[in-house]
Amino acid sequence: MKVNKELEVRVDAYIDEVWEDLVRDIVQIVSHPSVVDAEDAAPGAPFGANVRAALDCGLGIAERLGYATGEDDGYLGWGDILGERSTQVATITHVDVVPAGSGWATDPFRVERRDGWLLGRGVADDKGPAVLSLYAGAFFLHEGITPRYTFRALLGCDEEVGMSDVHHYLERHDDPAFLFTPDASFPVCNAEKGCFGGRFASAPVAGGAIRSWSGAEVSNAIPGESVVELAVDASELPAPAAHADRLRIEAVCPGVARVVARGIGGHASMPEGTINAVALIVDYLAEIHDLLAPAEQAYVELLDVLTEDAYGEAAGVASANEAFGPLTLNAGKIVMREDGRIVLSVDIRYPDSTSDRELEARLSELASEYGVAFEVSSTKPPFSVSAEHPAVQTLLDVYREVTGEPAEPFSMGGGTYARNFACAVSFGPEGDASELPDWVGPMHGANEGASEAALRQALKIYILALVRLQELDL
After folding, report:
1. Are residues 119 and 58 in contact, defined by beta-carbon separation less than 8 angstroms?
2. What is the C-alpha separation between 44 and 368, in angstroms, rounded?
3. Measured between alpha carbons, how far is 99 from 218 in angstroms, rounded to an integer?
4. pLDDT at residue 3 above 80?
5. What is the DSSP letter of 36?
6. Which of 28, 168, 204, 374 is disulfide-compatible with 75, CB 3.0–4.6 A?
7. Taking the mean position of all CA atoms in its chain, how far away is CA 343?
8. How far apart are alpha carbons 124 and 121 in whole angstroms?
9. 98: closest CA among 127, 73, 61, 119?
10. Residue 267: pLDDT above 90?
């Protein structure tokens, strides 16, 4: 089936007409530092005031475009375009973001428009796509089209932390007949690896060398910076034998030194091209092993195993298959608690060739070898939708027609909203991080950027996909 040329002309004209308004809306919604903050929760704002403000911004955009809007107690909001039938075709994006982190050359919550790129936290994940989805559905209103199925654009508020927003929503609302989330790469992701989270806690450290340790602010981010403060005079610390260009030793005060590691951050599920800053610190602490207390030595030895590679090979949990690809293991968030325990949170994305039970058993065994406690913090099984589903094939067809590129469905390690719905996939528009200019960062990293050309093309794909999905018997 070919794209209707007259329709394509109308879509192109619509995109030209609304583009500057769309960019201004991205700028507006990015300005809200909408990191989930459970301590700031309030009635109607279960994820904090900043996330609530971003949701209100998104709903305001929807209302201005002509949607009928609603919300689920601040957990999630939506805009509806009523169709001939109550059956829904839907999209879902999210207005919450991961913390800004360090290493930004710009204000992360003030979009910079530069050389065809937008820079700011959330322009790629997932505020830019959220605005795209609203403008894609608004094409029906602009053209005076009453869709066959009701279109619902869902705006989530807790995707980066726990997806409790969707769980709350689905307890009260029916699944759409089909849904896609613009929160991955094109062409179509119809399978997602399982998600496994765990925490390794050291034995209590009394009188040790490590005073504090930081990594990523969330476990699903590869830390671009890690800082450890040591109860050791800076003059007693040797220069790094490895990674000297990425480590810096600072004197804090007499008897206290700080070691700062600079890596290359990114998303936990996509380690290619990244450098884990926690791993850099681990390597240095291994070099000064004799300065550490016995409990610290054992813990660093365990961390050396966990950070040896990004695929769980040294840890003994590696697994892979053709459908899902390899397991990934990220050592992301690390803290020193008031009780003297150092705690590392790991994020694992796994194929269906292993299981959460196997992972728990092996990691518990590994932890015990070093006198460390291990506990599971979260699990989500792998999920998939048949590549032969008519809606999946429709999305692939539209992508091929617009881009002229071949397209087959794929699996990924990132966990999106799609896994929570009965029939859902992820559908762009994130690009290949390896092709970014050196001043543009990936999602979850510093200087997160999105190409305007790529966003424009994605909007065209989304509009045509929504039109084509109306033709299916769902």
Report:
1. no
2. 44
3. 8
4. no
5. -
6. 168
7. 22
8. 8
9. 127
10. no
